[in-house]
TrEMBL record:
Superkingdom of source: Bacteria
Keywords: Cell membrane, Membrane, Transmembrane, Transmembrane helix
Source species taxonomy: Bacteria, Bacillati, Actinomycetota, Actinomycetes, Micrococcales
Annotated source species: Knoellia locipacati
Subcellular location(s) per record: Cell membrane
Pfam families in the record: DoxX
Record-stated family: Belongs to the DoxX family.
Protein name: DoxX family protein
Keyword Membrane applies: yes
Primary site of residence: membrane
Gene Ontology CC: plasma membrane
Membrane topology: Multi-pass membrane protein
Length: 179
């Protein structure tokens, strides 16, 4: 792992670990703010307990943040964190609902900060750490399999021709051996 990744991943993950712990310890205030977004959650089959959903989001943030910071499955961890950031941002920083210009500006800054974090998470989610991506490796494996099939067929054709030649030679030798 490069030095930049070793430093940047924990820096990106720190906010999620701290925010997730806060959601686990104090879900009440977050659940109240998240109520408009959580009302939509019941439509997709999630429980109707706002504090439970806030705590679950906190667990995902702490777990994903810890995995990203430690460099274990960083692409999956980044994707999980991006998934937690979207409802959190919509619930906590809906600047378009604020009427007070000062609060609206403050919420807009927080919204844009989270948007920047989402961009960083998306970059981390596609970062292959210098190794080829899974799609590239799968494509190469498919090409290798196709080459193997092609080579096997070619070798089988050569072996069949050689067997036919050998059979003709043996037949000719047997015919010459007859009186």
């Amino acid at each position: 792992m490069s030095l930049v990744r070793r430093i940047a991943r924990p820096m990106l993950a720190a906010m999620f670990v701290v925010g997730g712990l806060d959601q686990l310890k104090h879900p009440g205030a977050k659940a109240k703010a998240a109520r408009p977004v959580l009302d939509q959650a019941s439509k997709v089959g999630l429980p109707d307990d706002p504090e439970l959903l806030v705590r679950a989001n906190g667990v995902a943030m702490v777990g994903g943040g810890a995995l990203l910071a430690s460099g274990h499955v960083p692409r999956i961890a980044s994707t999980v964190l991006a998934g937690t950031l979207v409802p959190t941002t919509l619930a906590a920083h809906a600047f378009w609902n604020e009427s007070d210009p000062q609060k609206r500006a403050q919420q807009k800054v927080q919204f844009l900060k989270n948007l920047g974090l989402l961009g960083g998470l998306l970059l981390a989610a596609v970062d292959t750490d210098g190794r080829p991506s899974l799609a590239y490796r799968a494509r190469r494996a498919g090409e290798s399999a196709q080459r193997t099939v092609h080579m096997t067929k070619r070798e089988a054709r050569h072996a069949a021709r050689a067997a036919r030649r050998e059979a003709r030679l043996k037949a000719a030798q047997a015919q010459n051996a007859l009186p």
